[in-house]
C-alpha cells in the first residue's frame, strides 16, 4: 500500500518567480542543441543527411510547381513514372499545427530544432509529473540525448525524430489527466498527440499508442480495485475526444495516406504467384508488407545489452579505429582505419546501437524498487514489450503472432524501431526514481516509518507524494548499482569466450584480409566491448556515489542534482558523438549537391513536354535523377505496389518493351564515353493500339507483359474492368499528342479516322485521376498492368486527365475545422490554468 505525506499549505510564490527555473531550463536546452550542432549554428555548415538529400530530389518537381503556381502538386512524375505526393511533399493549408511547431522551435534551424524539441517536451512531461526543475532537466537529457535520436538525424529521418520528440507531451497529458487535473491533462494530451501525428511517422505513433494502451490497462485495473471506474470512464472519454481532435488536425494527411496505403507496397499483394527466382507464393491481397521485409531489421537478442554497453557488438556497421588499434599494429594502412567493419551482430546494417545510458539503466533499475507500483508496472511492461518486438525474427514465436493478429502492425517494417518504447519508458522511470531520492522529507527522521515508507497521520488525496526513509533508499540505490554493475562485469567475463566473428568477415577474406588482419580486427572488436564495460562502470559508480553521499547528508540537494545532470549529459553526449560528429557536417548545401552531370545536361537539351529517364546506376534507390528528370526509378519506402511488381518482374529482367511503354527516352549509363543513350523505340506520351486483349487475373496480366508488344496490343484485366471487351482497331492515320503538361493535369489532342483505343504512358491511379473528352467526364481503365487507357470516338477531340482526389479536399476541410477547435482548446487551457488557484501539490506518479 502506497503511503503519502500531507501537501504543503504554504502559499505559492509569484508566477514570475516560479517561471524563472523553467525559463533557465529552456535556455539551457537551446544552448545544448546549439553547441551539439555548432557547425550548423556557428559555421554555416549543413548536416549531410542521405534521406533528406533523396527527399529533395524526389520533391523537386512538386516544390517548383508550388512556387510557380501557388498550388499544391498532388501528383509527381519525377519518381517511379508517377505517384501521389502525399508521402513526398504536400502541404495541407487547413493544418494550422505547423504554426505551433514553428513557435515551439524558436526559429532554430532544422535538426537543431529537433534536438531542442526532444529536450523541451521531455522537460514538460517531467515537470507535469511534479518533478523538481533540475531533476526534470536530467530526465529531459536522458530522453533527448538517447543515441538513437542522434543516429536517425545523421541518416536524415527527421520526421521520425519529430514524432519521438513530441511523444513525451502525449504521455505527460495522459498522466496528468488520470492522476491530477483532467482538464489540463487532456489539453496537453491533445496538443501533444496533434503534433506527434503531424510529424507523419505513423510507425512511431503506433508504438507510442502501444505504450498508452499498456498504461490504460494498468490504470483500469487500479481503478476497478479502488472503486473509481466511473471517474476513470469520464477521464478516458475526455482523452478520447482529445484524440479525435488531434487526429482531425492531421486528417488530410492521414486520409490521403490511408487511401494511398491500399495501393502501395504497405497494402499487400495482388499477385498470387512468386516472381522468378523466388520460392513460395506472395501474401494475399491487402495483408500488408511481407514478413521478410517487415523483419529485415531485427535487433539481436544479445544486442539488447547495448542499452547499457553501446559497443558490445562493435557499434555501427563501420567505425573508425585509431593508430594504436590491433589492426594498425598488424600493418593495415592508416587510410583504411577511418571506417572498419567493427559491428559483429546479425543485422545487415546499423547506423549505431540503441544506447539508453549507463546512468539511465541504473536509475531505471532503482525505479523498479522505489517507484509506485502502477507506474512501475506500466513502464516496465512497456520496456519489456519494446525489447520483444525489436527482436523480430529472432523471437518468431511471439513476433509472427503479433504480426499476423495485431491490427495495423503488418504495415510497418524495421521492427528494431520498437525500442523507441523503451527509449521513452526507461528515462521516465529513471527520472521518477531520481525524484524519489531527491524527494521532500528525506531527513525528517521523526516521521512514522513502516517498511521504509513514511506513513501519513491521515489519509491523503490522490495527488500527493510519497516520502521514503533515507536508509531504505540507500539500500535500494546499492541494490540497483549492484545489478547494473553486475551486468557490466558479466559482459566483461563473457567477452573472453566470444569469437567476435561477423557475417562480413568472409567477404573481407575474399578482398584480401589475411588471417592475421582478421584476427586483429576481432581483437579490436573485443577491445571496444571491454572499454565500454569500464566506461559504463565508471558512470554507474559516479552516479551511485552522488546519490549515496546525498542520502548520507554529505552532499546538498542542488549540487547533487547538478552533478547528476552533468554526468548524464557527459555519458550520453560522448556516445552520441560516435554516430553524429563533426565529420557528418559539410560546407555544401543540399541544393549544391544537385549539380547536373554531363548526362543530365545532354538530356535537358530535349525540350519536349514529357519523357522519362532511366539511370541504370542503382535506379530504385536514388533520387538524383528525379531532381532533373521524370524518372523511371526513384527513392521511396512506399512505392505503388503494382509498380514494384513491374520492377521485380519486368524492368529488372530488362524487358525493353515495358521500358518503351513507360516512355523511357533516355538511358543514363554511367559510361564516360557514352553517358547517355537515346531509346528510339520509346512509345511517347500516348498511342493508338491495334488490339485489346483481356485476361482474368492480375497474374495473367503480368504474365502477358513477358511477350507483349505494347505498340500494337493492350492487355486489360477483365475482372477489374468488365466493360472492356476484346477488340481490334485500325489505328492507321490516327494521331495523338500531349499539348500541355503539369503534375496535376495532362492535355492531349487527337485526330482519328475511326473509333480507337488509346494507351497513355502514365501510371493508373483510380483514387483521384479523372478523364475528360472535350470537357465531358469519361471512364478510363488500366492497361498493361500499370498504365491508363481510354476507348475514344472518331474525329478531332481533346483529352484531359486531372488529378482531383476527393480525399485531399475533404481531409483539408476537416483539418481546418479541427485546427480552429485545437486553438480554442489551447486558449481555454491557458485561461483555466491562469485562473486556477496555485496548487503546489505534487503528482502521484511514482
TrEMBL record:
InterPro entries for the chain: Uncharacterised_YfhO
Presence of the UniProt keyword Cytoplasm in the record: no
Family annotation (Pfam families): YfhO (PF09586)
Origin: domain of life: Bacteria
Keyword annotations: Membrane, Transmembrane, Transmembrane helix
Regions crossing the membrane: 20-42, 106-128, 134-155, 162-178, 204-224, 236-255, 350-370, 377-394, 414-438, 477-498, 533-550, 557-575, 814-834
UniProt protein name: YfhO family protein
Higher taxonomy: Bacteria, Pseudomonadati, Bacteroidota, Cytophagia, Cytophagales
Amino acid at each position: 500500500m502506497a503511503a503519502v505525506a500531507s501537501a504543503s499549505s504554504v502559499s505559492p510564490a509569484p508566477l514570475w518567480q516560479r517561471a524563472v527555473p523553467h525559463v533557465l531550463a529552456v535556455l539551457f536546452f537551446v544552448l545544448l542543441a546549439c553547441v551539439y550542432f555548432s557547425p550548423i549554428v556557428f559555421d554555416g555548415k549543413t548536416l549531410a543527411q542521405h534521406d533528406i538529400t533523396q527527399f529533395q530530389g524526389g520533391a523537386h518537381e512538386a516544390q517548383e510547381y508550388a512556387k510557380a503556381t501557388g498550388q499544391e502538386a498532388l501528383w509527381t512524375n519525377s519518381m517511379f513514372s508517377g505517384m501521389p505526393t502525399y508521402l513526398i511533399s504536400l502541404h495541407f493549408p487547413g493544418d494550422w499545427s505547423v504554426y505551433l511547431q514553428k513557435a515551439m522551435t524558436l526559429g532554430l534551424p532544422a535538426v537543431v530544432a529537433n534536438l531542442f524539441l526532444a529536450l523541451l517536451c521531455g522537460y514538460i512531461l517531467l515537470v507535469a509529473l511534479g518533478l523538481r526543475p533540475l531533476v526534470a532537466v536530467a530526465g529531459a537529457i536522458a530522453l533527448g540525448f538517447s543515441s538513437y535520436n542522434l543516429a536517425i538525424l545523421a541518416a536524415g529521418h527527421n520526421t521520425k525524430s519529430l514524432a519521438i520528440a513530441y511523444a513525451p507531451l502525449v504521455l505527460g497529458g495522459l498522466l496528468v489527466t488520470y492522476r491530477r487535473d483532467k482538464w489540463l491533462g487532456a489539453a496537453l494530451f491533445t496538443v501533444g498527440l496533434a503534433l506527434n501525428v503531424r510529424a507523419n511517422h505513423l510507425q512511431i505513433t503506433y508504438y507510442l499508442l502501444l505504450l498508452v494502451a499498456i498504461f490504460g490497462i494498468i490504470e483500469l485495473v487500479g481503478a476497478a480495485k479502488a472503486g473509481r471506474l466511473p471517474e476513470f470512464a469520464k477521464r478516458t472519454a475526455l482523452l478520447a475526444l482529445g484524440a479525435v481532435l488531434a487526429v482531425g488536425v492531421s486528417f488530410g494527411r492521414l486520409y490521403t495516406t490511408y487511401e494511398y496505403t491500399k495501393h502501395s507496397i504497405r497494402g499487400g499483394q495482388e499477385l498470387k504467384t512468386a516472381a522468378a527466382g523466388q520460392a513460395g507464393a506472395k501474401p494475399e491481397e491487402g495483408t500488408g508488407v511481407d514478413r521478410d521485409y517487415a523483419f529485415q531489421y531485427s535487433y539481436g537478442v544479445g544486442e539488447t545489452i547495448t542499452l547499457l554497453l553501446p559497443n558490445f557488438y562493435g557499434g555501427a556497421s563501420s567505425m573508425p579505429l585509431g593508430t594504436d588499434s590491433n589492426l594498425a599494429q598488424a600493418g593495415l594502412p592508416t587510410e583504411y582505419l577511418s571506417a572498419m567493419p567493427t559491428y559483429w551482430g546479425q543485422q545487415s546494417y546499423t547506423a549505431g546501437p540503441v544506447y539508453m545510458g549507463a546512468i539511465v539503466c541504473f536509475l531505471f533499475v532503482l525505479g523498479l524498487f522505489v517507484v509506485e507500483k502502477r507506474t512501475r508496472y506500466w513502464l516496465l511492461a512497456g520496456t519489456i514489450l519494446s525489447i520483444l518486438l525489436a527482436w523480430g525474427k529472432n523471437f518468431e514465436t511471439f513476433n509472427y503472432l503479433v504480426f499476423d493478429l495485431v491490427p495495423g502492425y503488418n504495415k510497418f517494417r524495421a521492427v528494431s524501431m520498437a525500442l523507441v518504447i523503451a527509449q521513452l519508458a526507461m528515462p521516465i522511470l529513471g527520472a521518477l526514481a531520481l525524484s524519489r531520492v531527491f524527494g521532500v522529507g528525506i531527513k525528517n527522521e521523526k516521521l512514522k516509518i513502516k517498511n521504509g515508507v513514511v506513513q501519513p497521520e491521515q489519509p491523503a488525496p490522490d495527488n500527493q507524494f510519497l516520502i521514503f526513509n533515507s536508509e531504505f533508499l540507500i539500500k535500494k540505490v546499492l541494490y540497483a548499482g549492484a545489478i547494473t554493475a553486475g551486468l557490466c562485469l558479466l559482459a566483461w567475463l563473457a567477452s573472453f569466450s566470444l569469437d567476435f566473428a561477423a557475417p562480413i568477415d568472409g567477404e573481407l577474406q575474399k578482398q584480401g584480409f589475411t588471417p592475421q588482419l582478421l584476427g586483429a580486427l576481432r581483437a579490436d572488436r573485443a577491445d571496444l566491448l571491454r572499454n565500454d564495460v569500464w566506461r559504463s562502470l565508471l558512470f554507474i559508480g559516479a552516479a551511485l556515489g552522488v546519490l549515496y553521499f546525498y542520502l548520507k547528508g554529505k552532499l546538498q540537494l542542488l549540487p547533487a542534482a547538478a552533478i547528476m545532470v552533468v554526468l548524464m549529459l557527459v555519458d550520453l553526449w560522448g556516445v552520441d558523438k560516435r554516430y553524429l560528429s563533426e565529420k557528418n557536417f559539410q560546407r555544401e548545401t543540399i541544393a549544391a549537391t544537385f549539380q547536373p552531370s554531363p548526362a543530365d545536361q545532354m538530356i535537358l537539351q530535349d525540350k519536349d513536354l514529357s519523357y522519362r529517364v532511366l539511370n541504370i546506376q542503382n535506379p530504385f534507390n536514388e533520387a538524383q535523377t528525379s531532381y532533373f528528370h521524370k524518372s523511371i526509378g526513384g527513392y521511396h519506402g512506399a512505392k505503388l505496389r503494382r509498380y514494384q511488381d513491374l520492377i521485380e518482374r519486368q524492368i529488372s529482367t530488362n524487358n525493353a518493351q515495358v521500358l518503351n511503354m513507360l516512355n523511357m527516352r533516355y538511358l543514363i549509363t554511367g559510361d564516360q564515353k557514352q553517358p547517355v543513350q537515346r531509346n528510339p523505340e520509346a512509345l511517347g506520351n500516348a498511342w493508338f493500339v491495334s488490339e485489346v486483349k483481356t485476361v482474368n487475373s492480375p497474374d495473367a496480366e503480368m504474365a502477358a507483359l513477358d511477350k507483349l508488344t505494347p505498340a500494337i496490343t493492350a492487355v486489360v484485366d477483365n475482372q477489374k474492368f468488365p466493360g472492356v471487351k476484346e477488340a481490334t482497331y485500325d489505328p492507321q492515320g490516327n494521331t495523338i499528342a500531349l499539348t500541355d503538361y503539369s503534375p496535376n493535369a495532362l492535355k492531349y489532342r487527337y485526330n482519328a479516322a475511326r473509333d480507337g483505343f488509346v494507351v497513355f504512358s502514365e501510371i493508373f491511379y483510380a483514387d483521384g485521376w479523372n478523364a475528360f473528352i472535350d470537357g465531358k467526364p469519361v471512364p478510363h481503365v488500366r492497361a498493361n498492368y500499370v498504365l491508363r487507357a481510354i476507348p475514344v470516338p472518331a474525329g478531332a477531340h481533346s483529352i484531359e486527365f486531372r488529378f482531383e482526389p476527393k480525399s485531399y479536399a475533404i481531409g483539408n476541410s476537416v483539418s481546418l475545422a479541427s485546427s480552429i477547435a485545437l486553438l480554442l482548446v489551447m486558449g481555454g487551457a491557458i485561461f483555466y490554468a491562469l485562473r486556477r488557484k496555485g496548487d503546489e501539490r505534487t503528482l502521484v506518479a511514482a
